[in-house]
């Protein structure tokens, strides 16, 4: 209730609660399952969802989904072809490639029917004078 003691705080609190869109439990469960499947099927590290690039991608996809909620939009219609991505990657080439060093750990498994599975366990940046084993 508004009074001279709380000023507009009551209204501000009410607006903040009304504007906050709570994600349903079912939606969160679906997202967890999709992220788990993404990591498992594509051999991605579990913390890929913490990456700025991945979060920017999800943000754009959510915005597109909000705009296209009335139409029948297929996922394959909005995702770029790998060749398109490789052509656009050159804008990241302006960064000094020699200043970035990474060490990746991957687990590879071959099934009895010769199917290869690759699991990225981690990719870690490091600063080292050399890429030799003694510096890693």
UniProtKB/TrEMBL annotation:
Entry's transmembrane regions? none
List, for all copies, the residue spans of the domain called Hermes trasposase DNA-binding: 23-84
Top-level taxon: Eukaryota
Which InterPro entries does the UniProt entry name for this protein? Hermes_transposase_DNA-db (IPR018473)
The name on file for this protein is: Hermes trasposase DNA-binding domain-containing protein
Please give the organism: Rotaria socialis
